[in-house]
Amino acid sequence: MADRAAIITGASSGIGLAIAHMLGQEGYGLTVAARRPDKLTAAADELRAAGHRVVEYAGNLGDEEAIDAVVALHERTYGRLDVLVNNAGVGIGEFVGELTTKKVDLQLDLNLRSIFLFYRAAVPLLRAAGAEHRNALVVNTSSISGKVGEPWLSVYSATKHGVVGFTQAMNKELAKDGIKNTALCPAFVDTPMTDFVKGAVPAEKMITTQDIAESVRFLIRTSPGCVVPEIQYVQPGGGDLPGVDEVSV
């Protein structure tokens, strides 16, 4: 059994993969999960090549059975859970008069509902870790759009506001169990998910995935008496998001 272990969703690329590498460097056994088997296997192989212990689960992380299966696989493999990273998510831009029900449901299910269900499935393991060292951690990837609503990304913004609110609630509900919760609220991060805006915000001016990973490294090293409920990441000068007329829609 590993001395420490973590689940990271949305781990096949971008922020999730960067966090997985960092946690592997810190000695955590890793369970990585994402939707596409080919991309996830490539990411898991990359992590193994770096010397990290990894198991993987590919599936629809908006699905209740898949969520339960990820946690069950992790428990069978490591027997403990110290860090849960709810990073899987999707952003789909649509104007409010043109909203597609399927796309609304996809964002609600993956960005918000899945976080609720991952907590439900994982909280017994998290409570056991919290009882042991009072420093279990859940990291929930929100967005700067979870702080200020954005046109064209209204549903995405609403789900990410929900992530911030749920994280706040969990800090109140789970503090007695030694479980800390942090919402990450980045502006544009240089990943494939932000390719649509790189004509207005060049990649070299974006936040890096390493910026995010290093902030999580800080979180796992804080003392049990220190809770960081939220981290915002913005571009220099405030980093306002470009208007919808400035991006490729």
Question: Would you kindly provide a written description of the structure presented here, covering whatever features stand out?
Answer:
With 249 residues, the chain is α/β, with parallel strands linked by helices. The protein has a single domain, classed as 3-Layer(aba) Sandwich (Rossmann fold). It has 6 helices and 7 strands; from the N terminus they run βαβαβαβαβαβαβ. It has helices at 14-25, 37-49, 64-78, 101-133, 154-174, 209-221, and strands spanning 5-9, 29-34, 54-58, 83-86, 136-141, 179-186, 230-233. The chain has a 7-stranded parallel beta sheet with strand order 3-2-1-4-5-6-7, sandwiched between helices. Helix 1 (14-25) packs across helix 6. The longest helix is centred in the middle third of the chain and has 33 residues, at 101-133. It is globular. Residues 244-249 have low confidence and may be disordered.
Which helices and strands appear, and what pairs or packs with what?
Layout: E1 5-9, H1 14-25, E2 29-34, H2 37-49, E3 54-58, H3 64-78, E4 83-86, H4 101-133, E5 136-141, H5 154-174, E6 179-186, H6 209-221, E7 230-233
Parallel strand pairs: 1-2, 1-4, 2-3, 4-5, 5-6, 6-7
